[in-house]
Design a protein that fits this description.
GO terms for molecular function: peptidase activity. It holds the Pfam family Trypsin_2. It is a single chain. With 253 residues, this protein is an alpha+beta fold. The protein folds into 2 domains: 81 residues, Trypsin-like serine proteases (Thrombin, subunit H, Beta Barrel), CATH 2.40.10.10; 116 residues, Thrombin, subunit H (Beta Barrel), CATH 2.40.10. A 7-stranded antiparallel β-sheet has the order 5-4-1-2-3-7-6. The protein has a 6-stranded antiparallel β-barrel with strand order 8-9-10-13-12-11. The protein is globular and about 50 Å long.
Length: 253
């Protein structure tokens, strides 16, 4: 009996070590394709303002992110442009970017840069099943912590409508009512995303293939409590909508 227990323990430890080593390799492969998305104002100090995360797709010249990351208008009174930040805080490369197309309904946007970066593979249109192990890499609280990509992992907890109900009718805004009439399915995750993770690639933990785009976290109390009391529930937009947006601009994924 003792020998059987030792054998089972050995098998468990070997499997865990193999899984951890696989995750190490996947993150190592994904990180060079994850970038910061922001605005550069040359006359300001600091000049770069990180607003979210993005990841390289297509032929290496395109960046996918959330629409809400790039939805704010540029200041027409100063020299200002959208930028992509590659690397990390100690070795940052800044590339000027332009918005190619946006999809406000599904909270997606695609930008373009002149420089070629390593793209990530995007999965087909099919939903991955609940229970699928996933990970995402981005810049949580990047505006404070800087350009240091961090990875989190979890699983797909549910495939659910993109609608968080309001507690009272007076909390229903016009924008929320509009979204309720255009409900689509998204991934609910048992992993915690933070401000700055918006636009992060959600990928299969065993391969690095992108299956979704992180776009929000459920806030249980107030926006200020998301750091001290995270709900542990995050959401991601399925890549079927990213593929449709890319196809509009003839971007092959």
């Amino acid at each position: 009996m003792k020998n059987i227990c030792l054998f089972l323990l050995f098998i468990f430890l070997s499997t865990t070590l193999e899984a951890n080593q696989s995750m190490v390799e996947v993150i190592k492969k994904v990180k060079p394709s994850v970038v910061g998305v922001g605005i550069t104002t040359p006359m300001n100090s600091p000049a770069n303002q990180l607003q979210g995360t993005g990841f390289v797709i297509g032929n290496g010249h395109y960046i996918a992110t959330n629409y809400h990351v790039v939805s704010a208008s540029l200041d027409p009174d100063v020299v200002q442009y959208r930028s992509i930040y590659a690397g990390n805080a100690k070795n940052t490369k800044t590339f000027r970017a332009e918005v190619v197309d946006v999809d406000p309904v599904h909270d997606l946007a695609i930008l373009k840069i002149d420089t070629k970066l390593p793209p990530l593979k995007v999965a087909p249109d099919e939903f991955v099943p609940e229970g699928t192990h996933i990970a995402f890499t981005g810049f949580p609280i990047g505006a404070v912590l800087g350009l240091y990509p961090a990875s989190h992992r979890g699983m797909v907890a549910a495939i659910t409508p993109d609608a968080i109900p309001a507690r009272r009718s007076d909390q229903l805004s016009i924008n929320m009512l509009d979204r309720l009439q255009k409900v689509f399915l998204i991934y609910q995750l048992d992993a915690t995303a933070y401000p700055g993770n918006s636009g992060s690639p959600m990928y299969l933990s065993d391969s690095g293939v992108v299956v979704g785009v992180i776009n929000k976290v459920f806030v249980a109390e107030t926006k200020e409590s998301v750091l001290s009391k995270p709900s542990g529930i995050s959401y991601a937009v399925p890549v079927i909508h990213l593929r449709k947006l890319a196809a509009k601009s003839n971007i092959a994924l």
